[in-house]
Amino acid sequence: MLGRIFVISLSLVVFGAVTAQAQYKEMNKVETLARNNNEQQMLAGLSAHLGVPADTLKKEMTSNNLNFGQLYLAHAIAKAAKADVTSILSDSKTKLWTTIAEERKVDMKQISADANEFEKTFKNQKK
Predict the structure, then answer these.
(1) Contact indicator for 104, 19 with CB cutoff of 8 Å
(2) What was the pLDDT predicted at 1?
(3) Which residue ranges make up each domain of the chain?
């Protein structure tokens, strides 16, 4: 019985780590773009992709002390969960991104596909 509990516990930890890794992979993807581009280019690209004015995104970054990856993930989770980004940003002050996504029943495959789409579109706009 103890062995079975250990296996179940280990499975939950591994599954949680995989979910966390997926979210942080998407944030890192956007952060890599940010390191290779200036702030205005990133704000313009995210604005076009998310349908949110660049000024609004800048204010959200500043007032919530977010990097571009976190800003992207907050909006992506809000969109996937059909939630207001303000509530996602509020949650991010006390909860891990993985917890927020799990509580909102967000499909991380959808977030991953969206991040790939953003990256592709952003790079093509720069050509």
Answers:
(1) no
(2) 53
(3) 53-127
